[in-house]
Amino acid sequence: MKTNSTNQKHESFLTDSFGRIGKKLRISITDRCNLQCVYCMPKNNNNWIDSKDILTFDEMIRFASVMSKLGIENIRLTGGEPLLRSNIEILVENLSKITGIKKISMTTNGILLSDKISQLKKSGLSSINISLDTFNHEKFKKINGTDKLDQVLESIKVASKIQMSIKINNVVMRGWNDDEVVDFARFSKSTGHPVRFIEFMPLDGSGIWNENLVVIKHEIMSKIRREIGKLIPLDIDHSSPARSYTFSDGKGIIGFIPSISEPFCQNCDRVRITSDGHFLTCLFEKPGFDIKALLREWKSDKEMANFIQNCISKKPEGIIQIIRDKQLKPSLNQMNMIGG
Ligand code: SAM
Ligand code: SF4
User: Fold this and answer.
1) pTM of the predicted model over 0.85
2) Mutate to test the pocket of ligand 2, among 109, 172, 275 (most ligand atoms within 8 A of CB)
3) Of residues 177, 225, 211, the one with CA closest to residue 197
4) Res. 286: pLDDT tops 50
5) What CATH number is given to the structural domain containing 86?
6) How many helices (DSSP H) and strands (DSSP E) are in the chain?
């Protein structure tokens, strides 16, 4: 164990070779989905992970508890579509009981959320990111595979009624939905829900990614400034990849995840596990390290911790290096397996 000072004792268990400290864990609880977004899922995908290879909730809880002892504080559940897994509230409840875990959140497409949100909140879920790329029914079908706009909007309403903290995730693609960024900014002003514009990353199972489809932060900001007004930066949260702004009247929060134009790699504090138990220290790591084998061989916490620390020591620099090496190309990884 490396110790820098008493209060950094735990943090330093997950320090990588660039000095970055892992604090946040994303658990992809399924690779399956009820949508087929063009920027994520392979077309006509039916190549799902076999159910026997999917981690059980008990395995996820055990892994999370080892990670919490190594310094992980926040857990985000994602997928595929996390709400496709039944009894997810039991997972949330058990994760929230782990000593050292301060926050459980979820990223969902929102389709199945309205019926489940109350129970999830009671079980300990503290915030939710809902993906929504368009307010147009036809475009929803084109971008996300099936038109479920009404269900998603209903879920946003229900979640805000019970005062759940909500953020809206919007992947902006040129020619697909970039004409709606101002509408989304207005939506944030009128509802108060932060909207985060995400630059399209080459994590598309479909293989459609190309640089021309990426609409960068600067371009989106200019459009919003022209149509609505000046964007005022909010305090920088160094642990978040999002850069956030509001307007002069203080209404609305507009965030950007500029993974391509301003990569966040230097401050990355995330690690991930796929639903079949592959540990990823970076979104662009492939295929990751097999934790499932350790879990199923009943390795001790200490053996697992040693394995994890060894993986962390190999954490690559990230997309920043891929960009520097001019190696961006479609399908560098598959987002529905990793969960964002
Ligand atoms: N199914 C859930 C959902 O869509 O919110 C959770 C999983 S999804 C993979 C997690 C997040 O990744 C979503 O907000 C989605 O919009 C985003 N995402 C998927 N593919 C992406 C890509 N190629 N580039 C940037 N963001 C992407
Ligand atoms: Fe499914 Fe989410 Fe990927 Fe869309 S982004 S296909 S909703 S996993």
Assistant:
1) yes
2) 109
3) 177
4) yes
5) 3.20.20.70
6) 11, 12
Sheet holding 254-257, edge to edge: 232-233, 243-246, 254-257, 195-199, 165-172, 127-131, 103-108, 74-78, 24-28, 270-273, 278-280, 289-290
Q: What is the pLDDT of residue 235?
A: 83
**Average pLDDT over every residue of 257-262:** 96
Q: Decide: helix, strand or coil at residue 233.
A: strand
Residues found in the chain = 340
**What 3-state DSSP class applies to 146?**
coil
Ligand 2 mutation target, pool 26, 32, 35, most atoms within 8 A of CB: 35
335 CA to centre of ligand 2 in angstroms = 8
Tell me the angle at which helices 88-96 and 113-123 cross, rounded to the nearest 10 degrees. 20
* DSSP run (H or E) holding 27: strand 24-28
Write out pLDDT tens, residues 10-56: 447 999 999 999 999 999 999 999 999 999 999 999 899 999 999 99
- 70/312 Cα distance (integer angstroms): 11
Determine, yes or no, domain membership for 13: no
CA dist list (Å): 87 to 84, 123, 138, 156, 157: 9, 11, 32, 21, 23
**Mean pLDDT to the nearest integer, 56-62:** 98
| Burial label, 76 (beta-carbon count in 10 A; 0-12, 13-18, 19+) | buried
Cα separation, 306 vs 139, in Å, equals 48
- The tens digit of pLDDT for each residue in 158-197 reads 999 999 999 999 999 999 999 999 999 999 999 999 999 9
Please count the structural domains in the chain. Answer: 1
* C-beta neighbour count of 215 within 10 angstroms: 23
* pLDDT confidence band for 236 (50 / 70 / 90): confident
Domain around 282: 24-338
Is residue 6 a part of any domain in this protein? no
Q: C-alpha angle 155/158/161, rounded to 5°?
A: 150
